[in-house]
Amino acid sequence: MDLKILTYIFVGASFALYFGIAIWAKAGSTGEFYAAGRGVHPVANGMATAADWMSAASFISMAGLIAFMGYDASLFLMGWTGGYVLLALLLAPYLRKFGKFTVPEFVGDRFYSTSARIVAVICLIVASITYVIGQVKGIGVAFSRFLEVDFVTGLWIGMAIVAVYAIMGGMKGVTYTQIAQYCVLISAYTVPAIFISLNLTGNPIPGLGLFSGTEDGTPILAKLNQVIGDLGFGEYTAQKRSTIDLVFYTMSLMIGTAGLPHVIIRFFTVPKVRDARASAGWALVFIAILYTTAPAVGAMARLNLMNAIQVGEVGAPDGNLAYEERPQWFKNWETTGLLKFEDKNGDGRIQYYNDKNPDFAAKAAAWGWKGNEMVKVDRDIMVLANPEVAQLPNWVIALVAAGGLAAALSTAAGLLLAISSSVSHDLLKSTFMPDISEKNELLAARLAMAVAIVIAGFLGMHPPGFAAQTVALAFGLAASSIFPVLMMGIFSKKMNNSGAVAGMLTGITTTLVYIFTYKGWFFIPGTAMLPNTPDSWFLGISPEAFGTVGAILNFIVAFVVMNMTAPVPEEIEAMVEDIRIPKGAGAAQDH
Q1: Kind and range of the H or E element at 416?
Q2: pLDDT per residue over 466-479, tens digit each?
Q3: Phi, psi (5° rounding) for residue 463?
């Protein structure tokens, strides 16, 4: 069957499922809108949490970055999975035991301060909006390719679909939609990976195929090192990023994961504290399926791309693919604007080399080289294009389309829900309009989500990087502001409201300023104060990694201010003691 028809069938069927669930699970109260009525089974919540957490950055972008960054991209694998373990062990059970709807609500009550609640809302919105930009980028990439429209049109189509089921269903609808989306996305990720691993190595398990031999017996990683080395690129398995940046980047992703509000609020949906722990464990199992497959997907995607473009003797001008003979997948992605070719020397061939490699200059003169002719290969296309490049059956390509959309839509919905809950529940109900009716609070939550969708859509049209890079910035913002205040709120009875507020403001401000200094103010091109290069970074720490520094400053400032201001009231200390130390295995653990 024709690819376009199959894509419409797979994507259309998945959307019909999402809409059906949203209608069935429409939220009728604030309890259902914010926390799904606290009636979600731990296994179901684990699956929904996995879908919420494995965003477009995980499904679409991470393997693309692994494909081009090689060894250095291991920081995403270590940071995101390690962060989830931190979240499950250090935060989720205690926050569920506290028994509230949102993260700012915990901060406001624990630090007995409206100011602390408002600052937490601001930090949450800043981190969540930045995160959702990455999801919007993924949505635009997927829709633009498989609906054969430009990136911006695809973006707004996707945001309209999110609006329908997220605004209608709230947390209740989003939870059950995310369960369906997990099933779609994990099938879409693993099935083509199995096919490609079999094609390249004969091994059906992608993770093992990564270390298996290709047709000529060369291990796939060694083969990849050879192929990209011939094109002037550095060894795939070599470290290129500085060690301090790798460490700080990984740590930023870890503690940022543990501080992300859209994941934390998932643990408010289960009936008991023990269920929060159980759902965290189940989520880790579901997440591991994708994360153990991603390195193989990235490496195999890079090898397939190089082989598809470089035909014949690598490095010779007549060994490059003739542009007129380019395959259909190449034409398809050119339509989106995410893959671009420019014939600079007029020979009609696609020449793709690392023209920044000094050793390449001598070779280039032989065939009238005038610069790299693949002027754009967006990293975010790699997973979606991989099945086409590998010439897999059309139904597999259509399945990947549905999976990519499921990943982006699931996390976008969770983030938008976190934003709307903070605005309606923490700003309106708990701060400025305490007498608002439940009906009006629910209406305010839906309006806040609609506004957030529009803002995220506009910002997503000009993201500050690839989906995973943009998400990394969001993790840095969460790491520098939300994670420290949650840790201090749970594990330090002496931390007072002044210290918490000062710490959050210090962390979020320093991290934002650092990001804007190198990325541009509000991500507008040409507004950066310094070049975004390792030579100009502070101690060689990239903007994506600076969340670790922001978190350290947050802790330091919080404890300094705490020691200079009034102590915590006794009743707050007793509340912290009750949250952190169970009084028994029975009723005390089951509130």
Answers
A1: helix 394-421
A2: 556 677 788 899 99
A3: -70, 155
